[in-house]
Every structure is written in structure tokens, then in C-alpha cells.
Amino acid sequence: MAKPSIDISESFASTAKISGDISQKDVNNVLQFLIGVGVSGHVPDQFDAKKDSYSDLVRDLLEPLHISRGHVTCLVSVKPAVINFFAGFHGGAVAAVAEAVSIACARTVMAKDKEIFLGELSISYLASAKKNEFFM
Predict the structure, then answer these.
(1) Most buried by CB count within 10 Å: which residue of 4, 17, 55, 93?
(2) What is the CATH number of the domain that holds 91?
(3) Do residues 70 and 109 touch, judged by C-beta distance below 8 A?
């Protein structure tokens, strides 16, 4: 089994089970990538302690353009907080936006006191929006 040859202080590196059929070079590349994207990074206290800060982040990306019964159209802005390692709109943020807009759409036809949730979501990623782009 390959062992990381680089000095890594992240706890995930020492506890990860590494398959024997992966080269040392590939192990190091994956670990460096994970470090680069901030895996196991510290979450600042103002976000860790605040309830629903993630929803605040998602809502900040949306500008409602049209709302009618069963239909919601929003302008989405790709802000630096939601870009991925490759400088594109993060796939998780895309899904979070889709969920928020779908729930907003459901709210146009359901009573406010009804509890709702998105039961299933499927997204095919064809191309990524870039930082500071807008789309509907």
C-alpha cells in the first residue's frame, strides 16, 4: 500500500486507506489537490456558529425576476464565494440554487404552513459558468 511521501498535517492524510493499485505519484497529487481546495480547513467562527449561513450564501446569488403561480425566474450571479478549484461555478452551489428556486416555486402553489422538501434532484453538468457571470 502506498504511503504519502509529502509532509501533510491534515488529519485525513494519516487516516485514509490508500489502495495498493494507486501509484505514489497519484496519491501525492490527490492529497495536494485536497489540501489546495481546503479539505479539513478551518470554518471561521462567524459561519460555524450562525444558523443557516449556507442559505444566506445561496440567497445572495439570486435575484428574482418573475414570480407567478407555479413559476419562478431568477437571475443567478456567480460570485467568488461559489467558484470551484477550476474557476467555474461549483456544482454543489448549482444544486443549492436549483433547490432554492424549486422550493420558491413550490411555495407559489402550496400553503405557507405546509412543510416541503425536495425529494430528488438530478443535474447534468455540460459547462460551467465562470466567476462574475450572470445567467437565468
Answers:
(1) 93
(2) 3.10.129.10
(3) yes
